[in-house]
Amino acid sequence: MSDELKCIHCGNSCGKTPVLFEGNPFCCSGCSTVYQILNTNQLKQYYQIEPMQGVRIDEEKRPANETYAFLDLEKFRSKVLTFSEGGISKVSFFIPEIHCASCIWLLENLHSLNKGVIQSFVNFPKKEVNITFNETEITLRQLVELLVSIHYIPEISQHSIEKPQSSHLDKKLFIKIGVAAFSFMNAMIYHFPQYLPGREFLEADMKKLFGWLSVALAIPVLTYSASDYFLTAYKSLKKKIISIDLPIALGLITLFTQSLVEILSGKGIGYIDSLTGLVFFMLIGRWYQGKTYQALSFERDYKTYFPLAVTKITDSGNTTIPLEDLKPGDRILVRNQEIIPADSILKSSHASIDYSFVTGESMPVAKTEGDFVFAGGRQVGSAIELTIEKDIQQSYLTQLWNQAENPFTANNRLNTIVNRVSQYFTVIVVLIALSAALFWLANKPEIALFAFTSVLIIACPCALALTVPFTFGSTMRHFGRKGFYLKNTAVIEHLYKVDTVVFDKTGTITNAESSKIRFVGKTLSPEQLKMIKSLAFHSSHPLSKTIYNSIDGDELMLVTNFQEIPALGITGKINDIRVNLGSRFFVTGNSSGNENLKTEVWVYLDDEVAGHFQLENEYRSGLKELIADLGKTHELHLLTGDNEAEKVNLVSHFGTEKNLHFNQTPTDKLNYIRNLQKQGKKVLMIGDGLNDAGALNESNVGIVIADNVFNFSPACDAILQSKQFAKLNHYIRFTQRSIKIVNAGFLISFFYNVIGLSFAVQGNLTPIVAAILMPISSVSVVVFASFSVSLSAKLAIKG
Amino acid sequence: MSVVFILVFAAILMAGGFLVAFVWAVRSGQYEDTYTPSVRILFDDMVKKKEPEDRSQKTEKGNGETEKIESRGLQSQLAENPQPVTRKIKQN
Does B43 share its domain with B81? Predict the structure, then answer.
């Protein structure tokens, strides 16, 4: 296929009829338009930085002209803008399409396209562009439309406006690490002379100065850098839980007091270097674990799906009103590609609604006047009129989010490995410290207190606290590199505990995009196939496109009297022969029979019904192996909103029909998960659409399958790239390895603790022993955790 | 040995200076995006050469057509001989 023409904008195949502009081939007029815009503005370098990386938008997915009218309203303008004064405004857009160097270059050269743009800055990891512009020259709406015209569509939703700034927390952690590092390095310098032979010659003044400087350095570390540890220790103690932070806080306080006493009494210099080092290492661990995928959103609720404003039809004309002002009984206008905000009744004669966000099914559903339309669907085609039936909060799908928090997930979150281990750990350490103190009280009372504090100091579970962040942090990074993105590291532990896997069908185990097509009926001659292809060419309906692409050949015949009857089908004349394509009712005049079981397109040709095309879902490759492998260790279930048409196929995959459930509503799915959890099962739910949102939320781990991970996905714990679907079992297996590595890390840190404690209980813990032992234990645990995860990731997850 | 006292304070001042610089860098958002600048630096040539054109467009109204034509000439030369940036971007 090397001679196939590729669109110079997006690199897609141009098909048989390329759009030509200045001798360059384009796949569609949209791509050619962007080229023309860039060409006239001297921005053709876009195509030289990285060739064929342009963004393609299908004709029918382009937003309508009025879509961004709401940005003219002051209410939204001020919400979207981050800064505005004296006509100069700043705005920040999330653009999922940002993916290459060309994107950065073009978006940062927006000022060449419109003089109103003063400066634009791209943040690539966040897929964000920050634009400063002059509102007297370009309005916010025009700016957004400018971005849309070059195919970079910004995501503007309730969610993106209200999104809290997460970077603030990151900054604070960085500064805490910086302060700890500063104190650690300097404290080491002051302590170092004391560890060398000949330290007894050190002047007393110098010793005193070093001591006081160390204390001064320790104060910001304790009060600022380590403040979180004290706070969480206090909070969990109040809830009568012993968390890992308690022994840490205890150790830090003892370290500081012991050092203070030694410095004050002039006995020594204390353990400040160990103290600051500990805090530094632990903060590094926290930073490593806290990595998040900035451009991905795991927290989307129903608000993300809905527009900020809708067009309301009133007697005096159309007005744009904010979504929250929408009331039942209102008449609204929904244009091409706009989302239906609330459950409503169709007032126009026909509508074609794409429920792919809701069900994962990519074929639009035809609706006629008076039909009930659920919120969340997307209108495809010309604008339609609707009457709102229910409040947005009361809508069928949004109710899923508004249901009460799940008691199971809430409890599980606290029960992590570290906290379980640290409960025993803390009790044992305190017992050892007490018995050491009692022993010395009887034998050598003057060192009893020292032995007691030494135990608390050396047993500070720094290495213990580092094991989990580094093991899980590297696991998460390895998953991310392979297309499996976790919300946070806690998901790894939940994934490990899962014993039941529930699949959604459409869009999850089947491919949303492609489907198998086959013709049922009399055998068609090549001539007849050509006629069907020619007719289908004239319609933009997805079904027509599928049929058009499924028939080979590139010659088209002339179609006359072409007519598209919405929701029914298309008709036309070729060589004076009438050809009809469409629904069973449209072609045969008979709507009874087993309709709805499968998507069918009926064909009328040569004065007779020739038969029908049947569309079947195509299962994702590797599904069989995945199910066979997962089935060995996990209980498998399938929930689908579809009918039983595919039952035979599915049973052959799953082996049994016991756990296959058809015709499930979103609420059924949610209750099903709840029931499983009531039986004590840990449930992993894999879904893709809005209709799974309740179930995904409810399950112990919810994974969303997405073709483009930056686009819409319901709230979940993890996002899996659809092409990695077949490797799901490897990921689940790998969490078991991670847990093993954590356990091994615990063993290592216990080993160091035993050595340290043997010094401590004898009252021999000198600052130099602490200064050597504590960093070594931390560093070796970190190295062990990161290294073994990398190694086993290489072995376990291939490709 | 008293010289060590001076050195100790000099050292802590210097380290403190670095700490302040680090805090400033974090606060000013330099750690928020550690990737884009590495790509952006490769575009610099183009952006710098663009500036005169922007200025010429602003003065265009006063100075007539000639300047505009000159800058267009420069631009089209650039467009014909652009510096290709061959660096590939990672997809995270």
Answer: yes
Same structural domain for residues B50 and B62?
yes
Structural domain that includes position B5: 1-32
Q: Specify burial of residue A525 (Cβ count, 10 A radius: 0-12, 13-18, 19+).
A: exposed
Name which of A257-261, A314-318, A587-591 the model is least confident about: A587-591
Neighbouring-strand partners of residue A363: none
Tell me the pairing of strands A350-354 and A378-379.
antiparallel
Fold assignment, A307-391: 2.70.150
Q: Are residues B47 and B26 in the same domain?
A: no
Q: Could you tell me if residue B91 is inside a domain?
A: no
Single out the residue of A312, A379, A368 nearest to residue A340, CA to CA: A379
- Report CA Rg, chain B: 24
User: Do the Cβ atoms of B92 and A293 come within 8 Å?
Assistant: yes
Average confidence (pLDDT) over A459-473:
83
d(CA A89, CA A78) in angstroms, rounded, equals 10
A590-636 confidence digits (pLDDT tens): 765 554 556 778 888 888 888 888 877 778 888 888 888 888 889 99
The residue count for chain B: 92
Which B residues, 51 through 80, put their C-beta within 8 Å of a C-beta on chain A? 54, 57, 75-76, 78-79
Domain range A63-162, CATH class: alpha beta
Tokens representing residue B56 in the block: 């010429």
Angle at CA of residue A442, ends A441 and A448, nearest 5°: 20
Give percent above pLDDT 90 in chain A: 10
Q: CB distance from A165 to chain B under 8 Å? A: no
Q: Do A104 and B32 touch (CB under 8 A)?
A: no
Phi/psi at A348 (5° precision): -75, 165
Q: What is the pLDDT of residues A665-709, one digit of tens each?
A: 888 888 898 899 899 889 999 987 777 877 888 888 889 888 777
Q: Specify if B27 maps to a domain.
A: yes
CATH code given to domain A472-511+620-736: 3.40.50.1000
Whole-prediction pTM: 0.77
**pLDDT surpasses 90 at A220:** yes
Which residues lie across from A334 on neighbouring strands?
A: A384
Q: Please indicate, yes or no, whether residues B48 and B80 belong to a single structural domain of this protein.
A: yes
Least Cα distance to A98 among A50, A40, A145, A164 occurs for: A50
Residue A14: count of CB within 10 angstroms of its CB = 18
Q: Could you give the number of structural domains in chain B?
A: 2
pLDDT of A406 over the 60 cut:
no
Element (H, E) at A254: helix A245-264
Residue A51 at interface with chain B, using a CB cutoff of 8 Å = no
| B12/A49 Cβ within 8 A | no
DSSP string, A610-670: EEEEEEEEEEPTTHHHHHHHHHHHSEEEEE-SS-GGGHHHHHHHHS-STTEE-S--HHHHH
Could you tell me if B25 and B55 lie in one domain?
no
DSSP, collapsed to helix, strand or coil, labels residue A578 as strand
> Does residue B24 sit in the same domain as residue B58?
no
The distance of Cα A611 from the centroid of its chain, to the nearest Å, equals 44
Q: How confident is the model at residue A407 (pLDDT cuts 50, 70, 90)?
A: very low
Do B41 and B72 fall within a single domain? Answer: yes
The shortest C-alpha distance from B48 to chain A (Å) reads 12
Distance CA A650, CA A661 (A): 11
Query: What rounded mean pLDDT belongs to chain A?
Result: 82
10 Å Cβ neighbour count for B54?
12
Q: How do the domains of chain A map onto residue ranges?
A: 1-60, 63-162, 167-287, 307-391, 472-511+620-736
What are the chain A neighbours of B77 within 8 Å (beta carbons)? none
CA–CA separation, A426 and A583 (whole Å): 71
